[in-house]
Amino acid sequence: MATTTTTRINEWDTIHQNGPFPSQVMYETTLAKNKGDKIKRYNDASVEIQRLLDVCVRDGVGFRAMGSGWSLSNIAHHHERMHNNSAMNIHIPIQDKNLHPSTSFLSENLFMFQCGNTIKEVSRHLANNGKSLKASGTNNGQTIVGAVSTGVHGSAIDVGSVQDCIVGIHLIIGPGPNDLVYIERQSEPALSDAFATSINCRVIRDDGLFNSAIVGLGSFGFVMGLVLEAEDQYLLKRYVRKINKIDALQLATSFTFAQSNFKIPIEVDSNGEGKRPYHYKLYVNPYNENEDFVVEIIYKHPYDTDYPDPRPNVKAFLFSDLPGLIANIAAKYKRLIPAIINALKANIFPELDKDTTGTIGQLFSDGVAEGKVFAWAFGVKQEDTVRSLNLFNLIVNRLGPVPGAIGIRFVKAARATLAFTQFPVTCVLEMDGLQWQGNANMRTMQEIETAIIRDFIKEGIEFSWHWGKNADWGYPGLLNYMYKSKVDTWKEHRKQLLSPVMQKVFSNNFTETAGLTDSANILPQPVIV
Amino acid sequence: MKKINLLLILGLTMAIQSCYSVRISCKDCIPEKVAVMQGDGFYRDKKAHRIKVTQKLSFINSTPTQFAPDSAACPNGFYSIEYKTNLGHVLLSGITLGRIRRVNVIYICNKETN
């Protein structure tokens, strides 16, 4: 049977050292050792999670499952009890007999992954079956549930975020016998009722509830497993070039790749016009406005085995080569920051003119996070790209300079209720760098986060902030400005699904601060035992 | 005075040169991770095992064979192995004419596949 170790802890921190945050207990569940029947072991783990939830309910404490701790805030943290599910990494093959009679999905493209599988494990398993994820973030260390629950995105302009390939969610919403649920969209059923029964779930088919639960921020229950739709394996060809600002921004706001002056000579159609890429990303040095942009442009190609392993050449945009010392110097002598960023461009931006080919799992591969890192990322409408970039640039220059550089990515709209990639094409403006402490000469990181929100609201630019990044989540009215009535929809669906007691259990300081949950005003309800 | 400085620089150079580490990791493997992260860099989120390995070689057998830990330590294989030496290790090897070799080893196991 699955077993759980309980460790007393005083604090917990993210991989990027955005804490530490005080906490009391870390649970860690490992699967039953008897290899063989996957469904049996999977169900056995569900029983164990329900036991832990029962303990938490009885003790009157909160519970939160963490993924890999990659989010740069306290979204994965709970001040009482946390759960590490890294070892819960079963993957269950889906067969024809498991399909819903009305489904349009092919069984060969559907895979069920338990919560602790990382993106790297998912990609590896899919590759072994000749399949591939449709989209991925820049790296692969997040768990699939962590990535989906916080809306991790890539820069796939016609695909969307990681959560957009999810077609079924298995949630554990409490300790009771009726608390295992399998949720799908009513309009796109995937698996049969019999399959749901085999994992001891009752089925809910509801588009609205599914769309709310998919980016559930850890607050819709314990996400035990996800069913995802993959596609046939493909290759991505990546080019990194300098591009003049006018052409770069013209492409950014229009996607007119066929007519653009910027072309990759071999990525053209029979008429000599530029093909539409899979991925389009710009790197911007905020401290040299005359400098051309660096563009990372990726095209999709049929899979072929004849290509060199790209991983030695792939370098993540993670500031992994910059020691924390630089952040300290920068905070003390802020006038040096533009010079430092200019001097270290080669380390911060990807290497120019180095073309790379690989699968999605190879191109967006292992990243090493070193040092105390911050990251801001927020989505705006594609048509607002230029004025948003100008305003963002102005803020980081006026209130900074901030020790970091800007990236711009583009993502197709997601269907999740609280997907931050909510616009038809979302332009994601992001800035990654090293955390700094404010002083008499330099504003704090938090002050600049507040200023960005304030100034974008003041300018009337619609935006939505990435759930996994640093932000002033307590900014008054922020959520309603970003999501309007969608916030109420999300809350209503959560109330429909969770009992009052479990609403409290699955809340945390992050959701309280953001105004997504309000534990103080949830009426108590006797626990049925 | 100049001679002393020269010797000091030479000594420091040797000390720095003798401290090195080599890490080999499997690019397709998945490491075992920890939930409560500590430290910085490569090992921050990984379950690292640290051991000190001392090889005592006889005059007949001068080939070190077991610098790596037993495979039973990692039933699913190794994700990475790093060995480190320092000045003390180099001096020990020199004094004993290479008969005693000591390194610090850090290894990470592969996560179990299910």
Verbal overview:
The complex is a heterodimer of chains A (about 525) and B (about 110). Chain A has helices at about 40-60, 120-130, 145-150, 195-200, 205-215, 245-255, 325-330, 335-345, 345-350, 360-365, 385-400, 445-460, 480-485, 485-495, 500-505, 510-515; strands at about 5-10, 10, 20, 25-30, 65, 80-85, 90-95, 110-115, 130, 165-170, 180-185, 200-205, 220-230, 230, 235-245, 280-285, 295-300, 355-360, 375-380, 405-410, 425-435, 465. Chain A is α+β, with helices and mostly antiparallel strands and about 525 residues long. Chain B is of the alpha+beta class. Chain B has a 4-stranded antiparallel sheet with strand order 1-3-4-2. At the A-B interface, helix 2 of A face loops of B.
Q: What's the rounded overall pLDDT mean of chain B?
A: 84
Helix content of chain A: 25-40%
Rounded Rg of chain A: 23 Å
Q: Which stretches of chain A are low in confidence, meaning pLDDT under 50 for 5 or more residues running?
A: 316-323
Class by SSE composition of chain A: alpha+beta
**Would you count the extended β strands of chain A for me?**
22
Q: Structural class of the secondary structure composition of chain B?
A: alpha+beta
Q: What is the distance, rounded to the nearest whole angstrom, between the alpha carbons of the first and last residues of chain A?
A: 23 Å
Model regions low in confidence, pLDDT < 50 over at least 5 residues of chain B: none
Proportion of helical residues of chain B:
10-25%
Largest sheet of chain A: 8 strands, antiparallel
List the strand order in the largest sheet of chain A: 18-15-17-16-20-21-19-22
Q: How would you describe the shape of chain B?
A: flat
Oligomer: heterodimer
Strand content of chain B: 25-35%
Tally of helical runs of chain B = 2
